[in-house]
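Appendix B, Record 12. Input sequence as logged:
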Amino acid sequence: MAATVEICESNDSTGESITHGVTNLNFGNADESQQVYTDHPIPIPGCSYFKLIRYHVTVAPSNKINNLQVYKSAGAYVTGESCYANTHVTQGSYDTYKKTSYSAPNKTELTGYYALATSDPGSANLGIGGSLTGEITTTGYSDYLMLQLKGDGTAVPGSTNSKTITFEYDEQ
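Logged structural output:
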């Protein structure tokens, strides 16, 4: 049987609240799932609240889900705009920023994190159970993907163009 996989976002300062089936990853100046960015503009220069995103397997695969890959596949950054993540294709580097348990999102700059890949990384860059070679064999979640949008002093306030973030996995 084919697995069913959805993307979830976790929010809330008093305990984890999970929004299932997220289709909008708008960034803003609030800890809110599927937000309307014009309601919570990001100060320039400044950072959005970071997003906590996970793959969620709701129907178990026949064998396993692995090789999780996340990257920006479309939409150009505007001047002064960047997106950072805790993803990396090398386990040692991934270990530095991997996130396997919940903590409330905030807008503190994620210093030292990696720029979100802008093309298919070719191998896992988000782990399962803390490992890039981890696998899900029943229902369950991946590690947390942390994403944060930053605007430096050269960024122009206001709306930016849309971007597409691609979530890939292998099912065997």
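The chain has a mean pLDDT of 94.
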